[in-house]
Specification:
The chain has helices spanning about 5-15, 20-40, 50-65, 70-85, 90-100, 105-120, 125-135, 145-160, 165-180, 190-205, 215-225, 235-260, 275-280, 290-310, 315-340, 350-355, 360-375, 380-395, 400-415, 420-435, 440-450, 465-470, 475-505; strands at about 340, 345. With about 500 residues, it is mainly alpha-helical. It has a domain at about 120-300. Strands 1-2 form a two-stranded antiparallel ribbon. β1 (about 340) and β2 (about 345) form a beta hairpin. α6 crosses α15. The chain starts with 5 loop residues before the first helix and ends with a helix.
């Protein structure tokens, strides 16, 4: 046999590259090109030379987050910022970037919160929550009550763990129910039921500001506004109230439109029976560690909220304020690691971290929060540049006009790019123009935070949107666009005219 020539090797490599690989390399090249171009460009006044390199590193990172992944682009972006000299020259400045990025309490909170709530899912608690909600007798013979309970269950699972977990758990259950009831893929109610199921998951995803991708946004906002280290980035209670009230109102509107305007045939769902579902979804009795984890959820939330409501001169309140979200989370992790059941830790840290920990989110939070701080720092000149560049568009707007533009931009870009990253990009703009217009930036920023999670129209909108678009046995693209687009528009109108005034009232 003759040895392979160089041309043969090249041909072989080309054959082994799948279209997905080729696309990944193309996007990677574009991301690197963005960084390099800004590195060598002449500064655009009033951006400083260091600011140009920081912008390039951040924009390249955001592009790669949206097209390639989260992990190595985060490391690349931090490396670019470190080499820019933003934190100092040489090895000291380089180390400073990574130490501050990964040493931030937000990043550590992400680590322990993912393990704590991942342990709950690992123990099977989410299955019991879903079973309990789906077997309430209120659903008997009431199709719209049944659908409302299913959608609320999706909301709960999405907020406690993630929309991905919610989909993985709820798809098999709901498909089995539909099959039992004789509901077919061709029935009119089918797409409304399943698209609605996804919509409430993505709307409710950012409910808890101390975990998940939303932590990136609220932490970036807190750092940009100079929130003291002993305070939470945003007030938790008003934030959660804004999301919960808004999601429930939007869900109610969806049900009312379905019942009185669309009016699909729901006769097949009248046979839904809670007792039958209880038998079909039978689970063994809960053991005490599972009960303990269930009890932990409300206690954990109360522990986080207490310092915001009670006088910190009270010893217990002072102690909880000292712990903060990070300390409270670590305390619960230690507690569940300490207690044992059947010879094993209730929370096996290594096992739970292996199965539940999302390294992409972890690295992305470190890079996004640090990068956002760099963008808003006066040393880069980026805030002044944004004011000058966007003033013709945003400067002459009324308060509601400004809010409408920001929310609309957030909705559009989140359906084509990484949602948390897009919110972080918009934060300096919000802060700059709110300062210029004399507005409180908190309601605007929190409204944008909610809007960037309304991500469902394209597979690139979010990981769970990619899952939805990939389930061709449940959804097709036409149905997603036909129903998803009005849902997005109604959500936008709601947040402009109701959500934003509500946020002003709550905050």
């Amino acid at each position: 046999m003759e040895p392979a020539t160089g041309a043969d090797n090249v041909t072989s490599v080309k054959k082994t590259l799948s279209p997905i690989d080729k696309k990944m390399y193309i996007h990677s090249f574009i991301g690197l090109a963005i960084i390099v171009i800004f590195w060598f460009m002449s500064p655009i006044e009033p951006i400083t030379p260091v600011g140009m390199k920081v912008v390039g590193a951040f924009l390249g990172m955001v592009y790669l987050w949206s097209t390639v992944g989260s992990l190595w682009p985060s490391l690349l972006g931090l490396t670019g910022i470190a080499l820019s000299g933003y934190a100092g020259q040489g090895a000291i400045g380089f180390k400073s970037v990574f130490l501050n990025a990964f040493g931030a309490d937000t990043v550590l909170l992400t680590l322990f919160a993912m393990v704590l709530f991942g342990a709950m899912d690992e123990a099977g608690c989410t299955k019991y929550i879903a079973r309990w909600l789906l077997t309430r007798k209120i659903i008997n013979g009431r199709p719209y009550a049944f659908m409302g309970v299913v959608w609320f269950t999706c909301f709960v699972i999405s907020t406690l763990v993630s929309p991905i977990t919610g989909l993985i758990l709820m798809w098999p259950i709901t498909l089995r129910i539909m099959d039992t009831m004789g509901v077919k893929r061709s029935d009119k109610i089918w797409p409304y039921f399943f698209v609605g199921m996804f919509a409430v998951m993505t709307l409710g995803q950012p409910l808890f500001p101390f975990t998940g991708a939303q932590l990136i946004v609220v932490s970036a906002f807190g750092n940009m506004t100079g929130v003291p280290a002993d305070m939470t980035p945003v007030p938790y209670a008003p934030y959660m109230a804004l999301n919960f009230i808004s999601t429930m109102l939007l869900l109610a509107v969806y049900i009312l439109v379905l019942k009185f305007i669309v009016r699909p045939d729901i006769s097949k769902l009248k046979g839904v029976d809670a007792d039958q579902l209880a038998r079909e979804q039978a689970l063994p009795p809960m053991v005490w560690p599972q009960v303990l984890m269930m009890i932990m959820i409300p206690i954990y939330i109360i522990m986080l909220l207490v310092p915001s409501f009670l006088d910190r001169s009270i010893p217990v309140v002072s102690f909880l304020a000292t712990l903060g979200p990070l300390g409270v989370t670590v305390a619960w992790v230690v507690f569940f690691c300490l207690i044992r059941y059947q010879g094993r830790e209730v929370l096996d840290f290594k096992v739970v971290a292996y199965r539940q920990f999302n390294w992409g989110i972890f690295f992305m939070i470190a890079a996004a929060v640090y990068g956002a701080n760099a963008l808003s720092n006066d040393a880069t000149g980026i805030k002044d540049f944004l004011l000058n560049a966007l003033n013709p568009i945003l400067g002459g707007q009324s308060e509601m006009g400004f809010v409408a533009i920001m929310f609309t931009v957030a909705l559009i870009i989140t359906n084509f790019a990484n949602n948390a990253a897009m919110a972080v990009v918009l934060m300096p703009v919000i802060l700059a123009f709110c300062g210029q217009m004399g507005l409180d930036p908190m309601p605007v920023a929190m409204g944008v935070t909610m809007m960037v999670f309304v991500a469902m129209l394209t597979p690139a909108a979010s990981p769970h949107a990619g899952m939805m678009h990939g389930r061709t046995d449940v959804y097709n693209t036409g149905e997603i666009m036909r129903l998803g687009f009005p849902i997005c528009v109604v959500t936008l109108v709601y947040y402009i005219f109701i959500g934003y005034p509500l946020a002003k009232l709550l905050f």
